[in-house]
Each structure stands twice: as C-alpha cells, then as structure tokens.
Amino acid sequence: MIVRYTSSTLNGKENREMIVSTMWLIPELLPKLMHIPDGFLNLMVVGISWVICIIALAYAVIHTNRQLGEKQVPLMGVMAAFIFAAQMLNFPVVGGTSGHLIGGALASILLGPWAGMLIMTSVVAIQALIFQDGGLLALGANILNMGVIACLVGYYVYVGMRRVLGDRTWVNLVSAFVASWCSVFLAAIACAVQLAISGSSPLQIALPAMGSVHTLIGIGEGLITVAALAFITATRRDLVEAEPTAN
Amino acid sequence: MKNKKWWVVGLIIAMAVTILSPLASPWPDGLERVAEDQGFIDRALDPFYEIIPDYVLPGVPNEALATILAGIVGVLVVFGLAFGVAYALRGKEAKPQTHQL
C-alpha cells in the first residue's frame, strides 16, 4: 500500500534505505514525528495555516461561549485527557508503519465541532509545547489538520449520514465509523497538500503516499471511535444526550 | 458512576490508558513513514527546547515507567487546560437536549 522510493529525485537512496532499516532495530533511535515537525513546511504554509487556524478557533470560542452545560465542562477535560492518552498508543498498521488515534471525530460527535476543536487544540498544543511532538511553527498546521479539519469533517459526515439513514443505534455507530475514517483521510490529504506546497514532497507522490497509509490508519480511528462511543453510551447515556449541535 | 464525580472516573480511565503506552508500536507513523520513504525526513529541525521529549520523563531510569509517568503528566495537564477553557466558556444553564446518539 505504501509508495516506496518512487521518486527518481532521491539521492543516496540505498544509503537511506540502509540507515532507515537499521534504525528499526533500535526503536529509541527513531525520531518521533507523529505530528508535523518544524522544517517540513515553508514559512508561507506555516503563516497561512496559523491564520486559518486562528480564525477557526476564534469562531469556535464565540460559538461555544456560554453554550457549555454543567456536565460538558468536565466532559471536555476528560475527552481531551483520553484523546491525549490514546494518541500515545501507536497501533501497527502494515509494512513497519504505525498509526494512532486523532480523536477529532470522537470529540466532535460527543460535543459538537466547535467544542471538539477546542479539545483537539488543547491536546495538540500541549503535545508541541511540553512533549516536543510536532513543531512550534508547525503547530498552526497541526491544529488545522487534526483540530479544525478532522473535527469539521468528522462532525458533518456523522450528522449528514444520520440525516439520510435515520436515527438508529446501528446507523449512529456506522456513521461514527465512516466519519472517523473520513476525518483521518482528509487531515492526511491536507497534510500532503501542505508538504507539497512547501516543496518537501511533490503532490503526485505525497498525496497517494499519505492517502494510502491513512486509508488504513482511518480504520483504526473508526474502530476506536465506535468502541469509545459504545462505551460512553452504555455507561453514561446522559452525557451523549446532552450533545450540542453546531447551530 | 452515577454521582457528580463521574468525570474523576473518566480521568482515571485516561490515566489507565497510559499504562499501555510502553506497548505502543515503535514503528514510524504514517507521516514519518512517508517522510522516510520520500527522503525529506532530514528536513525536520530539532525542537527549540525540550521538556519531556519523546514522551519519556527525564531522570527516570526505567523507560517503560518514564513513558507511563510522561503520559500521566500529559493527561493531567491536558485535562486541566481543556477543563479551564471549558470553564471559562460555560453558560449559566445547560443547553436543552437536542438529539440522541
């Protein structure tokens, strides 16, 4: 599924292949790049991403202000804490590649896209500021992809499917699965476009490479999201029922 | 789970999830794999500073324990931040129920 060394522009490809395959023997030597590090994006992409991200977050704050109920305040904290913890659990996908939950769809389905965005921003910002996971300059792009895009796509695919298929338990779970998959896939596509504009990797290579890997990672996202929603529905149905709409 | 402190249980579940973190796959993730395969991984810059790099709490000799402790620190900080943001944005009344999952 993974496009390997298709670029003829690669220099020293055998060297790189050797270094990379040796690195796999010593996991501690692997750089942790779950999120975009600084250096992958050029300043224009960094700047545009920050602008879009700040506009979206300002809108999220305005929309959420005075709308959160008594139960939703701790629920946002718990949701963010759970997503942070779950993002640490990389699951193997295929061919020596792993993936982890993003969580944007889960947060949005439970709390709406705007509260979801604030949850994801809390997670991604702490990961960059304290854990050096994702660059500080690239933080705007990481919030844009995993916060703004993942939340909006996850929420509207979920709501759209329910509107078409009706409000039944199985429809909700299938919708949550599809919405989660779409949220990961489109976040990855956005990342590929940012890498391409930055000149890190041409679009015709970055797009299929990011797309194919995240086609599989999205399945993991869907399974975890459905499991989490099923658990919350079974234990605390009142939290789910208090779900806000995007208005 | 029916009392008002249900969210304490949620927080404990999140902390419990970090206990699994030493078992996480060490393989590169999607973006990292693509960056390696396409040869632009070298573009990554070193962080400007380091507090808890790579989700390993510095000064703890056992790496599995250091990872779990880093996770617990992260869970608490992220909980505090998101709770704080939500608290600042709370309304006086809960919104009426709209639709069910």
Strand and helix map with partners:
The complex is a heterodimer of chains A (247) and B (101).
Chain A: H1 13-23, H2 43-64, H3 72-87, E1 91-94, E2 97-99, H4 104-111, H5 113-129, H6 139-165, H7 169-197, H8 203-235, H9 237-241
Antiparallel strand pairs in A: 1-2
Helix pairs in contact in A: 2-5, 2-6, 3-5, 4-5, 4-6, 4-7, 5-6, 6-7, 7-8
Chain B: H1 6-19, H2 30-37, H3 63-88
Structure report:
The complex is a heterodimer of chains A (247) and B (101). Chain A is mainly alpha-helical and 247 residues long. Chain A has helices at residues 13-23, 43-64, 72-87, 104-111, 113-129, 139-165, 169-197, 203-235, 237-241; strands spanning 91-94, 97-99. In chain A, helix 2 (43-64) packs across helix 6 (139-165). The model of chain A is unreliable at 1-33 (pLDDT under 50). With 101 residues, chain B is an all-alpha fold. Chain B is 48% helix and 0% strand. Chain B has helices at 6-19, 30-37, 63-88. The longest helix of chain B is centred in the last third of the chain and has 26 residues, at 63-88. Chain B starts with 5 loop residues before the first helix and ends in a 13-residue tail after the last helix.
Key words describing this protein structure:
heterodimer, A: 247 residues, mainly alpha, Arp2/3 complex 21 kDa subunit ARPC3, two-stranded antiparallel sheet, 3% strand, B: 101 residues, 3 helices, 0% strand
Strand order of the largest sheet of chain A: 1-2
Helical segment count of chain B:
3
Largest β-sheet summary of chain B: none
Number of strands of chain A: 2
Entry summary:
With 247 residues, chain A is mainly alpha-helical.
